Amino acid sequence: MKRDRPDCCNLIVLDRDGVINEDSDAFIKHPEEWQAIPGSLEAIARLKRAGYFVAVATNQSGIRRGYYDRATFYAMQQKLQGQLREQLQSASVDWVSFSPYLGQDQSPARKPGTGMLRAIEAAAGQSLAGRAFIGDTLSDLYAAKRHGMRPILVRSGKGRRTLATADPILERVVVYDDLDSAVKALLAETD
Length: 191
Prior knowledge:
The chain is α/β, with parallel strands linked by helices. It has helices at 40-49, 61-65, 70-87, 115-124, 138-146, 159-164, 179-189; strands at 11-14, 53-59, 95-99, 132-135, 150-154, 174-176. The model is unreliable at 1-7 (pLDDT under 50).
């Protein structure tokens, strides 16, 4: 889903499951299962009001596993877009990159690889270096770091499990409760 390229430097990348919507170890397999995390849609609407190009980079191995197909994934994205428009008529996710691969496929598109981030840069026409990437897993944090981005962790989704790993990358990562609190803090930096 592509929108107009941004005319400023405000770009942000979000993971989807566990950051924007509730996650499940059994996968989110149908639009009826897709439920926004409280405050996440409002956070995206605030980013859009502030002039951000909002991109999503999401591993979706459930497609490769046969739990759902691409059409179902797109239907979930349409549900997200529709609910965003209820928050703010002009609110939308500007670009979605997804990787349907499994870890053993060793695809550079799958996080912690940076293929999806390179696709976002091409869509936005700007570098993501130094930009925020908000995620809930180590693969999100490592993809951000490998691409020169600013990794931010949220405790929602798998975030608490990620913190429990005590992985060395966590020493240099800012942590927020959820997307809502992370976005409030980011926007306060620019005020």
